[in-house]
Amino acid sequence: MQEIEVKYRLYDLCGLERALADRGLVLSAPIFQDDQAYAHPDWAYGQSKIGVPFARLRTQGDRHLFTVKTPLANELACLEHESEVADRNQMHQAIIQMGFRPTVRIVKTRRTAQVAGMALCVDEVEHAGLFLEIEKVLDADESGTAAQERLNAFACSLGVELERTTDTYDSLVRAALAPA
């Protein structure tokens, strides 16, 4: 399956909440997510991510999820495989043994809503700020870029101030933490 995303820096949370309420949508209670990102040892920031597999280990409550994403058309249109794991530390060691290296820790609070097959995520990301992320799952043979344009049209229809970014959270956090 493909996970397709569009991401926006969010400047008016109250305005977004009003726009969602006008559509009968309410964001969930906040959920804390602690993500460790991993990269292939031959890849470095500044290089293209297209076609390169990346791993993530997420803890959310008492659940641990292991995810591998491979960007296809762009960094936010990825082939994705995900599975729950029992022991975060053991999975971390297994990822290292597979040759991946830890890159950035992404810590965020997420609130979600679902509409028309889309997941709307409002994320407060430590060091990076407040974002709206809209996600949709597609079959592997569907066009990710066409889906991103539909997701973008939905975001624009909300009528709130948003600034689209094509960066992933790991890149945004890394940039925020880089020495000036």
UniProtKB/TrEMBL annotation:
Pfam families, per the entry: CYTH (PF01928)
Alphabetized InterPro entries for the sequence: Adenylyl_cyclase_CyaB, CYTH-like_dom_sf, CYTH_domain
SUPFAM superfamilies on file: CYTH-like phosphatases
Entry-linked PROSITE patterns: CYTH
Entry-linked Gene3D superfamilies: Hypothetical Protein Pfu-838710-001 (2.40.320.10)
Domain CYTH: 1-175
Tree of life domain: Bacteria
Name the UniProt record assigns to this protein: CYTH domain-containing protein
Annotated source species: Acrocarpospora pleiomorpha
